[in-house]
Amino acid sequence: MNKILVILSVFLGLFASSVSADGLTNNLNNMLNKKDTTPMVDLSNLNVNAKPKPVQSAVKTRSSKAVVATVNGHKIIKKEADAYLKKRTQGKVANFDLLPKKQRIRLLQEMSISTLASDAAKKGLSQEEKLAISTRVWMQKKALETKVSDDQVKELYDQMEQRAKDANSTKPIPSFNSIKDRMKMQIVEKEIIGKLMKGVELKVIDANMIAGSINDVYISIEDADKALHSISKGKATWAKVSENDRMKLLNMIAPSKLVEEAVKKDLKSKDTEVAYSNVWMQNKIMKTEISDKELRSAYDKIKKSAKKAKSKQEVPEFDQLKSTLKMQMGKEKVIADLMKNAKIKLK
Predict the structure, then answer these.
(1) Residue 75 pLDDT more than 60?
(2) What pTM, to 2 d.p., does this model score?
(3) Which are the contacts of 17, defined by CB distance < 8 A and separation ≥ 6?
(4) Which of 29, 80, 116, 261 could form an S-S bond across to 338 if both were Cys, CB 3.0 to 4.6 Å?
């Protein structure tokens, strides 16, 4: 089990922003500075600016709690479908039952992307990966709640600068502005860990395969040995280190164990599921192969569309758009693969 080492490694990259699947690229239409003229739901048969047509008034509308569909066994209630439809049509339509069957299926396909990605992430990510992701989410959440002013950072910087002068250091000190954000992150992390460690009870037990305990959470000798192996590069084991070093090791392990417990207590399952699916989607997109021929073809279509629309905004050169196009096309391929095995049933 590598949980301890996984969480310790998360601290090193704590504040790296996670990239959601929806935020990887901008819609290509926006590059041409034009509105999306092809909405997902066709409203041509719905009179959204007047009273409902007679054919619509005959449609029976269900309770907001009614199950309108299932996606791979997951239930979708009408309240969720109505809210998504209202958002998708910018408030013009808010009743899922008014849509023709084909449009309802199309809406459900779009709604189901996050659910399908979440299911795939649960199966595709290892326990260590899930732990690292949920730990990062929890730490980022706590970081937003921890306020550190520029004055606090500047005070710490001045102290560091003074120590360097006192030691007659010849190594140049980076400017304040160049390391301000990194220093602020370090202060925030220290405050979070400090709060976790406040009042923590550590005990060395060394009996029955148990090395010790952290707030009554037991640490096995096996886990202690793994941590020591990493720290000492294989030179130390629990059996060989002194009592003092054993306590130091428990102090090092404590933050990761305390965070693990806090994650279970503080994070909602929905928060972790979204994080898992975002990371899974990002990884799949990055690994999806897109040939230069495919990219060039997509680029040519953009130029053709811009010319046809008589756009005044010049389309960037191919090399400038290449990485963005690759991300967008990768995302589309991943979603298409998810949809292949999706079982969407209308109720």
Answers:
(1) yes
(2) 0.72
(3) none
(4) 116
